[in-house]
Design a protein that fits this description.
By secondary structure, this protein is α+β, with helices and mostly antiparallel strands. It is 40% helix and 38% strand.
């Protein structure tokens, strides 16, 4: 009976620790994307680039961009075109899927895109647009972390 009790306590402890680790991974991966969101809106090119791994790839509506030099060109060309609000995070291991709402600077129109990012050691290794959508006028992203 004592062995069963010890096994039960140990099982609960292991499950609790697994849940804590998972929550930290979710927060960490989503936090990288949120940091990019904030850096983008402040038009801080260096802060945006600091979130990417040296050999990162970005795939979006403008094409495929590899490494710091190509990413810098992309970011410098686009950083003033819109503000961004990302949320609706779904984290699975090193991948985080999220939605972004873009407000176009020139005319205030809205656009939406869904991305999947691979986060390795706190850096974006890959960021891939998987879908574009037109948000309804009442569309609002829930940027609250899980």
């Amino acid at each position: 009976m004592k062995n069963i009790f010890c096994f039960a306590v140990l099982s609960v402890l292991v499950i609790s620790l697994s849940a804590c680790g998972s929550s930290q991974a979710e927060t960490s991966s989503a936090a990288v994307i949120e940091a990019g969101d904030a850096a983008w809106n402040s038009k801080d090119v260096e802060a945006i680039l600091a979130l990417y791994a040296d050999d990162a790839v970005e795939i979006n509506g403008r094409g495929t961009f590899y490494g710091e030099e190509e990413l810098r060109g992309l970011i410098e060309a686009m950083v003033g075109e819109f503000t961004i609000d990302c949320g609706n995070y779904f984290v699975a291991d090193k991948e985080v899927t999220y939605d972004c709402l873009y407000v176009i600077t020139d005319n205030g129109s809205l656009a939406g895109e869904r991305y999947t990012a691979v986060i390795v050691d706190g850096k974006i290794k890959a960021n891939i647009r998987t879908e574009r959508f037109d948000p309804p006028k009442e569309f609002k992203i829930d940027s609250t972390l899980p």
